[in-house]
Amino acid sequence: MGLDKWLEAHRMDELGRLDTPLHRIDARMKTLTALVFVVVVMSFPRGAVSALMPLFLYPLALMRLGAIPPRVLLRKMLFAAPFAVAVGLFNPVFDRQPVLVLGPVAVSGGWLSFASILIRFVLTVGAALLLVACTGMHRLCAGLERLGVPRVLVVQLLFLYRYLFLIADEGGRMLRGMELRSAGQRRLRFRVYGSLVGHLLLRSLARAERIYKAMLARGFDGEMRAMAPMRLRWADAAFAGAWVLFFVAVRNWNLAACLGRLLTKGLS
Amino acid sequence: MNPAIIEVEQLRYAYPDGTDALRGLSFRIAPGESVALVGANGAGKSTLLLHLSGTLTAVGGEVRIGGTAVTPATVAAARARVGVVFQDPDDQLFMPTVGEDVAFGPLNMGLPPEEVERRVAEALGRVGVAHLRGRPPYRLSAGEKRAVAIATVLAMSPEVLVMDEPSSNLDPRGRRRLIDWLRSFEHTKVIATHDLELVVEVCSRVIVLDGGRLVAEGAVDALLNDEELMVSHGLERPHILRHRHPH
Amino acid sequence: MHMADALVSPAVGGTLWAASCVVMAHCVRKLKATFRDELVPLMGVLGAFVFTAQMINFTIPGTGSSGHLGGGLILTVLLGPHAAFLTIASVLTVQALFFADGGLLALGCNIFNLGFYPAFIAYPFIYRVIGKGGYVSVRAWVAAVVAAVAGLQLGAFSVVLETQASGLTDLPFGTFTLLMLPIHLAIGVVEGVATAAVVAFVARARPEVMPAAPVRSGPVNARPVLVALLVAAVAVGGVASWFASSHPDGLEWAIARVTGKEEVEGGASGLSARLAALQERTAVLPDYGFKAAEGAAEESAETWPAVDTGTSVAGVAGGAMTLLVVCLIGFALKPRRQMGV
Predict the structure, then answer these.
(1) C197 and C63 together in one domain
(2) How far is B173 from chain C (nearest CA, A)?
(3) Least enclosed by CB within 10 Å: which of A171, A186, B190, C296?
(4) Could you say which architecture CATH assigns to the domain B6-89+159-242?
(5) Is the CB of C341 less than 8 angstroms away from the CB of B135?
């Protein structure tokens, strides 16, 4: 079983429950900022490489302010990379038109657009991971509801999250039990698969029924009621506003090119 | 004579697949009593508890809470009067944080936010877990989960506390704390348990179930000391009664 | 086969998000109308189950590889299309946020690709029709495999279309399709077999748990879905032939390079010929589909001022310098941490 994946999930959960000033920023503002960030990154034309550079400030700043160790993010990015990298790798194959000459090396448009895809991958994946690492699932879901996501969906996310670790633990225990009786064979044979996963499903269904009874016993009538409202502070709005302005500025003016021109002018 | 708070009359129940679970049980519980439900596995203890809280509907016979029969029409009121602590706390702690779990019941009762807040604080304090309020349930130890599960029920201010195997999975200290709380609660208590030592410490009356039938009921000392009775119904005489030491 | 943010344009991502939201809103309304509040814990727990099941691999006899359950089909069998769609959406959301599987923008695409086809097409029109309500017979296994394959093929093809429409890749439509579809055919067979195995076990062990009648939260109206499918098929045919005819060389070359199989090479030229023939028949449509995508791309380029992408030495130097500056600023920020709950 992907046990490492589960340890990662535990880690992400832990990070989400830290208490830095960044974690305390309103979840709605952080969600909107992340969304704008992703849209801005993807709105750049193909082949944009240096123009995207200033945008690295966003994930880096979040990592530092949220006390998120880079290793956690990098490991997840590596796992998720294959599809984007595989598709992106075809670009240099099909687009061999040289567009840039760096000394003796001619760089084709294909390589440039591939690099662009990689950079976008890192930026967008970073934004998604950092959103939950700097907010925590609970605060994030509360924020999503305030943003208009229907209660049914938010409740579903919270229930899913709540029982994720429990059921994964049960599954892990069943697998270990099976491994111990399989004379060293680590992988599951298909013959056994149906019954192992089937058992897990039966247990999950039984648990869902018990939870429902417990909910009924405490007066559940179909509606999930919330307790404390969320308050928006000036700091929260300022956070979102400042970042969005920065993203728009980066999109409109190629800061990297400006800096580059200054450098080359200074050197010539 | 004290009016009984729980009256069970000829209660019958069968599982969806047809097997009989309860075969005509009758008993009464007075307000303030601490009653233990004992019996071997499969005797019907958990099923009976679910009837007392209105979670299951009887196939035959009647359950009356505070004089009112439990029917689909009255079940909501019955649930407000009877608080159930289930066997597995993970089934009962389904909200993102402890605080929200304890607030779930009062919110469903339609209480105003200030009252909900007051009850949450009080219930958490009662079982000594106020510091866990913001904690998610999967980050609690077995003893903490048990305490929070009890708090979720206390917050609804029920008249009757029904508990299914409350001392299971608890370490000695957790178990001792549980016993202390149970002795301090003034609610009417119905406790289904294998922990016969707990029964001796907490309860005054015991009901013995076997195969869905009520086979004995009476004072704790008298019944639990009856070794023949205990063994014939899949139980045994608790150690604490064999060697009574003055504490 | 999750779409990644890095390959999807805001226009395509936004469109698929809109489509997913429409379907989700429909599902929410349908669930509210049926008042099945036992679904609240059930959907959550089954979502957690699917998450866990996805990580339990079994060895596929004969090959060295392993397979696992995706979960879309089995969720629909247990919950019905509307509840299943929402559950799938929740699983994908958690995957995107915690495991970087897919992204925030591509989430809309993934919810549609991996949720809509199994729940609203494969289950009602294939699984139920072939399986006829049984869960342990041979026909139940066939139903599961065909339904899973169909659902995944539709999903995989959608990924191809979305990637092409986003325009960030040079991969020709034909090559991409020829890579994605066979792979997902195999994945679909594995998914169907895994689903059938679990369903059969549960149906034998506790038959009362499996839905006896078709789980419906409302009548599934076939007409609009079939019309939509027809339109989609025709539009796809037009777009497909347009792409295939522009890059026949790339197709053969890429296939030869990637798969190294002779029979596929032969098939490739056959495919080009067939697609060209298709283009002739659907000559009315080919530009329609692509024009919409092209127009959208132009519009999105025009709403933003033109940006110098830095294809010059100054640009490259500036890019490197900027990255350095940004890193310095980033690392200068002091993390202030207190341990929370």
Answers:
(1) yes
(2) 24
(3) A186
(4) 3-Layer(aba) Sandwich (3.40)
(5) yes
